[in-house]
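Notes taken during the Thursday session

The instructor put the following on the board and asked us to keep it in front of us for the whole hour. The protein is Luciferase. We were told not to look anything up and to reason only from what is written here. First, the residues (261 in total):
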Amino acid sequence: MTTLTGATLAAAGIDAVALKPTEVDVSQATALDVETLAIDYEGAAHVPETDVIERLASTANVRVTTPVRANGFDPLGDDSGFDTLPADAGHVLVAGHSAYLSDDEAARAVAPRLRAAVDDTSNPWVGTEGIERLALAVGGTQYELLSRTTARDVRTLRTAGFDGSIAVYAPLVLSNSEDAMLDAVGDYAARRGPVRNALPDGAPTDSRATGRARDVLKQAIRDYALVGSVETVAERTKRLHDIGVDTIVGYPARGLDPFLS
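Then, after some discussion, the predicted structure tokens were revealed:
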């Protein structure tokens, strides 16, 4: 199994790192060898303290998830949450996952709020999941999840004349161990629609998977995540850059420790 240091991120072609405060101590990210950090918190209770974000922003470009339907970040309602973020923190505008929204928040219209948020923020990233056409219409950096169709989708955008920025998010596992890959991102890949439909009912989605389930997952983790040796991932990220992806955002699926020098 590969042992990694922070410098490996650059060697693998990773431009930015996504941080989940529920899983890692985000303050440790000051030691990562990347220029951009995207704080991907899950629910308002997990927004890092302002001083933590400021400390990160002193060493990297920091972007913070901004769910436009959530209280505190609703540009057409309660937007008090913006006041708690450092002025130099960028934004990743998203519709917001229903699991982290109240019923009232989830019922709010996305389109007018996303348009208003784009108008009110400087150089935002716009999460495209589930709202691809709307995200493209409002502008900003298109922030997509890596999938089996990413290469085709990006080529189509570029061929059609889209000259805006494109960022792609992907779970990252730098390891030569297939079991380690499956334990880290098998469940994530299994939640993607095509994979979920292809898996046998009740099959394990980690290293315990066997037979057809393992065959499906082995391909799925390569479609929806960046996995393998540094060289293997570097080849994949180079292809993505070559077709028009500007920023590749890796989510360290096994935590930050392997990347800290």
